[in-house]
Amino acid sequence: LRTLWHSTPVDTFFPPTLTGDGAGPGGADRTWNRVAVAPDSGCAGALDPLLLKTLRTVGCERVLRATYTDATNTSVITVGMVFTSAEPAAMKALAARFTDEKLTERTDLMPRTYPVKGTIAAGFGSAQRASWTVKVLDQAPVVVYAVSGFADGRRVPDPQPVDKATADGAKTAAAQSGLGHDAAGIADQIETALSGSVSTATESSG
Questions:
Q1: Per-residue confidence (pLDDT) for residue 93, from 0 to 100
Q2: Integer Rg of the chain from CA
Q3: Which of 33, 125, 134, 204 is the most exposed place for a label (fewest CB within 10 A)?
Q4: Model pLDDT for residues 39-88, shown as the tens digit of each residue
Q5: What is the DSSP code (8-state) at residue 177?
Q6: Residue 78: which of 110, 108, 42 has the closest Cα?
Q7: How far is CA 94 from CA 30, 76, 97, 126, 195, in A?
């Protein structure tokens, strides 16, 4: 499974179009279109040093990233998969740590964006991050993350993790614009695609 990133077509991991039924604010349907896929890379350039340090117990082998935009071209979202070298027990321990220590709420552990020159995501940098999620999987040696922002490049002074940005009554820009739902919805879609690839790989090797 650790070499799954190398043998799986990019469109399987990052489909050109993602559809989230009921994934938007108020249960609205959402559609996201892929802007670009980053070349697969090592971990140092793709991840913030503190996030990389937090993942050291599972090891970081490779990072795959892509950036999407919503159907109205008002939001941009980078989604990534960190392939690790860990056994299931280590992944479960890290997942428990993220939950127990509320690491998903720490702004200093926000994932980096993947801006793409010449596209709607050209201005999607660190200051534009509005909402994010980091999900440590236990069925595969992978960490899935997503981070969203406005497509117009505006700075966001009060980014919120998806749990807070999708909560009833949340009033921040990330919440009211649906950016929390974008990050959560895309992360869920990519996790589902990954799970399908893991099942196929497991059946093939069984």
A1: 95
A2: 16
A3: 204
A4: 888 898 899 999 999 999 999 999 999 999 999 999 999 999 999 999 99
A5: T
A6: 110
A7: 31, 28, 5, 25, 19
Give buried/exposed letters for 139-176 (b at 16+ CB in 10 A, else e).
ebbbbbbbbbbbbebeebeebbbbebbbeeeeebbbbe
Question: DSSP secondary structure string, 24-63?
Answer: SGGG--EEEEEEEEPPPB-STTTS-HHHHHHTTTT---EE
Instruction: Please check whether residue 167 is in contact with residue 175, taking contact to mean a CB–CB distance below 8 angstroms.
Output: yes
Beta strand pairing call for 160-161 and 131-136: parallel
- For residues 127 and 162, what is the distance between their CA atoms, to the nearest angstrom? 17
Structure tokens of 205? 């090797």
Tokens 């971990």 appear where?
Answer: 43
Give ∠ CA 37-123-176 in degrees, rounded to 5: 95
Polymer length of the chain: 206
For the chain, what are the domain ranges? 4-199
pTM, full prediction: 0.92
Cα distance between residue 168 and residue 105, in whole Å: 17
Structure tokens at 29: 């349907």
Tokens matching residue 72? 């109205």
Is residue 84 within 8 Å of 149, Cβ to Cβ? no
